[in-house]
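User: Please fill in residues for this 293-position structure.
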């Protein structure tokens, strides 16, 4: 085959002008989601800044100039011990069937960034062996369906919706305040539980279960799921005011003191690869939040 007749295929970062083609690919690869859903998802990514020098949207696979594959990436930065730690949620990944032989180009591009912790929170069942072969490790093993309002009373506590301008004191770090503010803007339910003068942040996202008939909240962020178990009573009774009785949270097993039931493997598997082991109860800046359920 001559050089002129060799098929030209390349992998490159997604740009703003690629969005219509990306939406079309994702709608084809995930037919249970509408084009409008993906257009909104891409708009969300376009409106936020990815930490430099990482891509804002992810990578595109082109064959003879036409878009034939896509991998969507959501990069975010977190300050820990005065150092920036980068997390990447590997979201949706699709390649046209005729070009699946080149799919590895996309994952190679995605995983080439050194020092990044990658998470995959919604892998399809048939991809689990491939993900594990790529070096990903499972870190969440099920979910608890909890009824927090049935929890015990906790002395010296106050539960209130988070207010971005309120002075919560040194117990609420600036990084956490930024996370709460961003997720409030994304439409999440954000609360501060003050316990003996100490601020404890919690973020929830609305979802529905049992064929979308029952409204619940998914725990998106807390410092430690044991904090949620300990403060479940006050939190649950505050949530009752808005008609929510059930909270779902990732877990590795039952949590002592939390009224509910642990379901192994419920909610799918969550995997990570990289230097920072994700802690249970942190789904911030993930596809679940930015794109919706």
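Assistant: Residues filled in for all 293 positions:
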């Amino acid at each position: 085959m001559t050089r002129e007749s060799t098929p030209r295929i390349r992998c490159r970062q997604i740009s703003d002008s690629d969005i219509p083609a990306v939406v079309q690919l994702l709608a084809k690869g995930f037919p249970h989601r509408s084009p409008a859903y993906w257009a909104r998802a891409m708009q969300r990514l376009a409106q936020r800044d990815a930490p430099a020098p990482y891509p804002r949207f992810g990578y595109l696979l082109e064959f003879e100039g036409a878009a034939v594959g896509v991998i969507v990436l959501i990069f975010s930065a977190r300050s820990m011990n005065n150092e920036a730690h980068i997390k990447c949620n590997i979201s949706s990944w699709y390649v046209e069937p005729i070009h699946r032989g080149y799919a590895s180009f996309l994952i190679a591009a995605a995983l080439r960034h050194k020092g990044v912790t990658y998470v995959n929170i919604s892998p399809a069942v048939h991809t689990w062996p491939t993900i594990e072969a790529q070096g990903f490790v499972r870190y969440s093993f099920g979910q608890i369906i909890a009824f927090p309002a049935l929890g015990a009373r906790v002395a010296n506590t106050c539960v209130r919706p988070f207010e971005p301008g309120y002075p919560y004191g040194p117990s609420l770090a600036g990084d956490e305040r930024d996370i709460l503010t961003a997720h409030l803007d994304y439409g999440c339910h954000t609360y501060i539980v003050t316990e003996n003068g100490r601020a404890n942040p919690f973020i929830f996202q609305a979802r529905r279960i049992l064929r979308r008939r029952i409204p619940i909240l998914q725990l998106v962020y807390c410092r430690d799921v044991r904090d949620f178990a300990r403060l479940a009573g006050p939190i649950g009774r505050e949530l009752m005011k808005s008609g929510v009785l059930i909270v779902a949270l990732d877990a590795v097993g039952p949590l002592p003191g939390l009224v509910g039931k642990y379901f192994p493997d419920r909610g799918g598997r969550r995997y990570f690869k990289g230097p920072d082991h994700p802690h249970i109860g942190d789904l911030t800046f993930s596809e679940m939040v930015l794109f919706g359920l």
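For context: Helices lie at 19-29, 35-47, 103-110, 128-133, 174-185, 225-239, 287-290.
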